[in-house]
Amino acid sequence: MPDRAATHTPAPTVERPDRLRNVVLVGASGAGKTTLAEALALTAGALTRAGSVPEGTTVSDHEEIEHQQQRSVQLSLLPLAWQDVKINLLDAPGYADFGGELHAGLRAADAVLFVHSAPDEVSRPVLALWRECAAAGIPRAVVLTHLNTARVQLDEVLLTLQDAFGDGHPDTVLPLHHWDLREGHLHGSIDLLTGRHYGSPEDPGDLADARARLAEAIAGEDDTLLERYLNGEELDTGALTEAVHREVVQGTLHPVLAVSPAPEAGGCEELLDLIAAAFPSPLDRTDDLPACDPDATLAAQVVHTGEDPYVGRLSLLRIFSGTLRPDTTVHLADRPDERITALSSPFGRQQRPMPLALPGDLVSVAKLTGARTGDTLTTDGALIPPWPLPEALLPCAVEAHSKADEDKLSQALARLAAQDPTLRVEQNPDTHQLVLWCTGEAHLGVLLDRLRTRYGVHVDSVPYEVALRETFGSAASGHGRHVKQSGGHGQYAICDLTVEPLPGGGFEFVDKVVGGSVPRNFIPSVEKGVRAQLLHGIHGHPMVDVRVTLTDGKAHSVDSSDAAFQTAGALALREAASQVKVQLLEPVDEVRILLPDEYQGAVLNDLSSRRGHVLGTENGGPGMSLVRAEVPELELTRYPVELRSLSHGTGEFTRSYVRHSPMPANLAGQYERAS
Known about the structure:
16 helices; 6-stranded antiparallel sheet; 675 residues; 7-stranded mixed sheet; 31 strands; alpha+beta; single chain
């Protein structure tokens, strides 16, 4: 832990869940979330000096890869104490590849702070996340950063936010302060409700009109306050403050705050005051998750899993109900019970002891060897549903670099998958490749780095292979003769086959032998040999959709055997294949692409270049289109990356296997392998 941490600062504790605030910072990559978290920790007294993202000295970004890339790649927690309230401040990655960590933060938090860079437009992904939070009923506020830009005009920025987030009701997105922003520096602000001065703002003159507009907007959501306001009654500060809390919790008011860049970090006190006074506690949750009751049975969920070089696996838990104490035995679904020995409160990399964890709190537990991210820990067996995760659609085939790496690879990947539920590890039964399915290139880079640095496993990336198939282009006949005499017991088997295509029919074996030319006990042997050859294929890919008919053959009373007829059956199939064209089949997926209307044309053109067949387009929501198409899997290997580029990060897609279809002749030659 850096020596910037306040000396001997214990983990913040509270005695009641209503004194807890769980807040997650979200926003576009580069908006300033980590810098804001550092500034808030400094203001709350948890740090003696703020760190810097470019210098790699921030507390929340404590992994080396985060320092190298200068961006967050995982969810981190900074518990802060402010006005007898414990604020669990969660810093979530903004880059799209780490959406799993973002959604884990949404599950852990009770409110969301959208961090927005004032000079920038509101991006589509951020707007989509806002709507997702709105649909889930999660309270939201907005924090403006990067004010030290000449072109920032706060009035214009506010109009932009109201247009983007107001959903037709601009008075739901409002500043609660008058800001004194001069030359890119926030000199201070004045609370419009209480009149309190923060920093050293210049005298703005009479703010009565601004306070009246704010009071009218707040009172408009409360019938009692509205009646008092319309009757000309002066609304007292206490009533308005309570109304702000009520409306923030209900999602009818989204306060806007401004924070000056570090190290001054003007605006942090205002933000911490607002979180403590107006943000929801765990008692205010209205979702279907277990109710916040200290005396109920324990229900907790693993929202993040990390590794510590000294203590091993660390599981970050959100306690939903009950009180978690050391030496508690917890149930895990489909796995052995585990005993929790000690509790700690993470502060970046540091772990500080905790005596217990109340419902609503976030706590770290070491060495839960069977627990994975998303798992439920209970004392009565109840399950908490997992949160939605982005689907891993970018494949990367890897091989162990050496025999020593191969011995450790399986265990290392299992540990990574337990930590990161967006990672899908596949041992492809058709291509025999080990494939890591990731959400994007940045996600893949982090996984490979963790394999190397955490577990000492080096892997090499190899070209990803698609599971192709083969079939007969037309009917053909084959003669299989396996006759060998080498003294003593020989081998003798002859069979004649006809093979014909059977589109979509799999495999059929038909016996049309007459007169006993092939003894009955050897007919299954012929079929077994044919099946073995079909599995191997002619050009190195499994053969499917054929009907094989055994028409004739010969046997020897002494030298014929099961093995001999298996070999003859395979030889007959190969001879039949040599007489006709063997057609390569490639897998075809149905893709469903959701994207803004303005990118539909570019995406449709791109699908055409990928040999895609568009099935149709339909309305995907306000300003959105849903495109359905069938596309060969060979053309989708890097589609997650390329769709993100085409749609400026706003498009998303799903895919599902439909069938194998004939591959064009001009491509087939590239994928034919020697049998």
